[in-house]
User: Fold these one by one.
Assistant:
Number 1:
Amino acid sequence: MDSDNFKDFAKEMAEYITNYMQNIRDRRVLPTVEPGYMKPLLPSEAPQSPEEWKDIMADIERVIMPGVTHWHSPKFHAYFPTAQSYPAIVADMLSGAIACVGFSWIASPACTELEVIMLDWLGKMIDLPKEFLACSGGKGGGVIQGTASEASLVALLGAKAKKLKQVKEQHPEWTNPEIIDKLIAYCSCQAHSSVERAGLFGGVKFRLLPVDEKCKLRGDVLAKAIQEDKEKGLIPFYVVATLGTTVSCAFDRLDEMGVVANREDVWLHVDAAYAGSAFICPEYRYLMKGIELADSYNFNPHKWMLVNFDCSAMWLKDPTYVINAFNVDPLYLKYDTQGSAPDYRHWQIPLGRRFRSLKLWFVLRLYGIENLQKYIRKHIAQAHEFEAMVLTDPRFEIVAEVLMGLVCFRLKGSNDLNEALLKRINGAGNIHLVPSKINDMFFLRLSICSRYSESKDIEYSWKEIKLRANEVLEEQSVSK
Ligand SMILES: Cc1ncc(COP(=O)(O)O)c(C=O)c1O
């Protein structure tokens, strides 16, 4: 493809994308295809001779779109949002053009330096304690991971390296496998599965702790678990506090957990994957009270801050343990000024890394903090609008406090009834929701996801839910 062809292709694609976004409401949010739908639509082998880019454009509607779940439709309310915006799309184009692999400073200085500065900008936007920021001149700093799952694993491996070193100093006769066998980590039973999975990757025990009636992990529960485990000869080394659980968007008591973790010399990691974006609004920062007690903090601008996947922001107060845990320094990666800027390959699992900070830079500049705040506040306001609608109908109940853009609700009645309701809603395909469970109680989650979401969309979704509830309840009364 030559430059002129590229310009035409890119222009046509920009046209297609804007059309797609402007009319996304008109598409059925859930596809109707069956597994294997694509095979008959494509040749079984790659073409021997080049095709025209126009042939590809023609195939997007024929091959791809029938199998797309439209995550950016205002009718999509499943999971948590995944971010998307024009500035981030354009930044990804530039990243694709520069196509550097920024594993060390010298591998592309701009890639590292913009990331350091963007993580400082972002850290200041959520009022992180200065110990986390590179600009404070201390050890701390930020890094862009691919996902929150990677951040939990990186923090766990850093914590493991730190504890190994400490225990070795006290018990030089103990072998590494002996110490690792005693290590134990903690999180709430409502933490994301990736947190527990990090324990599997790290080869350590993980204990899932019970939560209070508001689904929060409390300090006294953590303290008791640590005490019990120490009495058994185990070595507590890592705890994760979740701010905004996937199950119901509950917030662990970071302030209480932090006191315990610091007292017991246990690494405290904070997973605020979804809700962390809300802390750019000062009125929500009470939910991150105790952040100064954490060792590492993570949230995903790629969920709720208009930066396309993947962009998971992580800060470490003292990255030394992570750096040492991952430090393998072959000759071909050495360079003269090594040590004066971060070599991000030591802060992450893979070696390779894209120029992801460009999309953060573009989004922060082209929206400005004030519009990002408006965006968060609008989603939260819409969640409250939906909550109010649910509360007007005595057949329904709200099952968790609505603090962010997620509403957990159900029909009063059995789990079976609510499962039938969800099946009917998703079967109709006009809106898309996923379920969740707390203490064996099945409920539906309505998450405000789209950057196009307006009050009229919330009204539409509520009408659709009521319609399907009428059908299910009618069916139930007929079968009785
Ligand atoms: C609280 C929480 N933690 C972690 C994750 C995993 O995020 P990622 O896909 O970035 O690994 C999620 C995903 O929704 C989440 O809600």
Note: The domain at 100-354 is CATH 3.40.640.10 (Aspartate Aminotransferase; domain 2).
Number 2:
Amino acid sequence: MVVVAVAGLAIGYLVGRAGDGGVDAQEVSPTKARARDFYVPNSEDLAADEMRVIACGTGMPTPRPAQAAACFLVELGNGDKFIFDMGDGSVERLWALEIPPAYLDKVFIGHLHGDHFGDLGSMFVAGALGGRHGPLRIWGPSGQAPELGTAYAVQMMENMFTWDIAGRIGQTDTRGFHTKVTEFDYKLENQVVYQENGVTIRAWPAIHAIDGPVSYGLEWKGLKFVFGSDTFPNKWFNKYARNADLAVHECFVTVPDFISKWRATPEAALQVATQIHTAPEAFGKVMSEVRPRMAVAYHFFKDFDTTGPILERIRKTYDGPLSLAEDLMVWNVTKDEIRVRMALVEEHVWNPPMADPAIPPDPSEMGPFAEDRLGGVVPGYSDFIVSGRWEGVEDVLREIYREASEALGREFPYPGDDEGDGD
Ligand SMILES: [Zn+2]
Ligand SMILES: [Zn+2]
């Protein structure tokens, strides 16, 4: 027996289960530890046949500390990791999971609303600095015009960081400051968009705002994870998500709450919450068709007073297993069990260890290499800016170099000095 967020219509019983330390959950002692039912990042191995899914964003387009915008991480026992959507604020959650950024290099975008891809820039820069030494790989749909497709959006994002990249070339390891985009036809119906290492990911159309959005299904070792991104209920999801192990689908705030809390006009609330998105009652009907082992509802602000009405409305049309997602909810999925918990994360995280070491900066890259990378832009300092350097700090900075050379047992020449002349 496991604890699920909401287990059918029945009450979920917590039955003693061995914790990671082998402690019985029922054993109570004034000095001995009891089993804990949290996921603590970097504390559990993933079994060879196990899938771990972590919600790294479950909210809406306006920022709130409690919930980042759409993002779900899928980790597989074969070592592969996939990210579905990367909404604003989600990269902070991903870093809290203490995963070496080199492993977070595959992102699947369901559609190009900011709350579903707005943190891609953070991932592009932070990942490159944190140890992703290859390109950030991005999959996403085309649109009705080239400018409405994923490749255009990513190219513009990279262009936006022209100064950022110019300011790092020759000064740090910049091998990760690249993207590799696979844009596919948004009209594909359950066609393969990714197939590597025993993992197959298919895409099908979603109905949301304008043409372009898609949903994804990931299959591996007989397990199936489905991610809807945003969509009005549609025939493709009902068909291709059927019998998924974990089916993530949006479930919007109720119309009364959207009017009173978001302060939408009734006209806009009805349009947005029932026609552009999926209303809770409609979410329930979709899941009654799909019949997953676990339905996951997200894309609502989950508060003490919004959650009840959403659950009530879902339960009018669906009585199966259900998780009302919030950030850092964790699902461990195997053939035998779906275990649902919350993650307990450290807020003061540093970057995790690098999967492969960084290389020291190569100042020679500041010349033609940089110009080439940046399309003719010549980075660097002008004589004017160099003339503003205050020489009054040179003595203390030289001392830092001397200190490092002594502590690390090799000579670090002060910039501008001849090689080997450290003083
Ligand atoms: Zn959207
Ligand atoms: Zn959205």
Note: Residues 6-10 have pLDDT under 50 and may be disordered.
Number 3:
Amino acid sequence: MQRLCALLACVAGALYGQCITLTEMDPRHPALGSEAGKMYAIACTQCHALPDPRRHTPREWPGVVERMKEHMAWANTVVGPDSLKTSPVLDTAEIVRFLQRYARAEQKAN
Ligand code: HEC
């Protein structure tokens, strides 16, 4: 499964001219049972493994999620008549809060 996820990330990443390796969040993490955790797991594994929230600090996460929204918008682009175009909107505020809660501690300025 991990290999498949890595492969999918490569396929998605390759479209952008790069390949990403992600440290996956422990699937047994109790937080994944919460509503926000489930939302995070469903929304954010469509293209790659579920990233470990400690990958970024609370300050960094909103920017990363914004970039992901651009990837999603791009992936949902339908070429053709307007009647075929749909615009599902994922509410990411909850996901950002979840990530910030379990994020890596901010680095101390020194
Ligand atoms: C439509 C496909 C897609 C979805 C859905 C998606 N991602 Fe990504 N993600 C990518 C691609 C492509 C990359 C590599 C390019 C990049 O980093 O922008 C990536 C890279 C990443 C990275 C590694 C780069 C970094 O800045 O640390 C993280 C973390 C990440 N995604 C988090 C998320 C989160 C959180 C969500 C859910 C809100 C999500 N992704 C949903 C396509 C997606």
Note: The chain has a mean pLDDT of 83.
Number 4:
Amino acid sequence: MPTCKLCLSEATLRNSHIHPEFLYRDLYNDQHQLMGINGEGHRGYAVLQKGLRDSLLGDCCESFLNREYENPFLRDWIDAGVPETFRDEGVVYSVKVPDYARFKLFHLSILLRASWSGLGTYADVSLGPKHEERIRRMLLGGDPGKAWLYPIFGYGVADLRGKEPWPILSRPMVTELGGLRTYASIYAGVAWNIGVASHLSREFSTLGLQPDGTLHVIATDFRDTVEAKLAADNLRAAEAGRPVAAELHGRASRMEYRGVNGIRGIVRGHR
Ligand SMILES: [Zn+2]
């Protein structure tokens, strides 16, 4: 019998989402299709009908994560319309999340699932046994840990010229911020950066999510993000027969990238 990766008890494993399905909600077109931009094939994207999943958890922890972390985030962030406030370029918005612990642990739960997953899309996401075990215990115990541990910092990402959302979900990508190894993943209108280290970073401590629930979000135009550049690169390279590795998910009906770091590309999505 396999074991559930979160509670370690024997369980029939479900096909668990890495990012909860509600984060893909705005990406689907009328036919419930989204673009998985992977730079492969002659188009550079695959049409998907569902978000990526892997067998990770039993019913025990599927419902636990759903109840404790996913539903509160859906209610307090997405349904509350918070991302729609980040619309003026360069402005630093200060928001207060109602439940610091659940909010922080929600983001960590996605990062941990991506780290556990054996899917090729998440091959670069590897927290290592020490961090995986620490985050696993934090999630089970509802413990957000010290403020400096796994700090979270966000860039609001939208089409700021059109004052519209930029419907995209990106896998966690490794980067470095404030001297910390950082994973950045865009969903729910924000590029969430999570620092992974066992020491303090001053930049993250000042700007990151605070234990009183305060979060500073800098509004950024999607054209200035590395994810937009990667998506444009992928789609253009596939056309030219030179795939580059990266994967992002975007709305199938309409995707446009113009003038991203000098790259001009307009992509008409699958209809
Ligand atoms: Zn479990």
Note: Residues 15 and 226 are 30 Å apart (CA to CA).
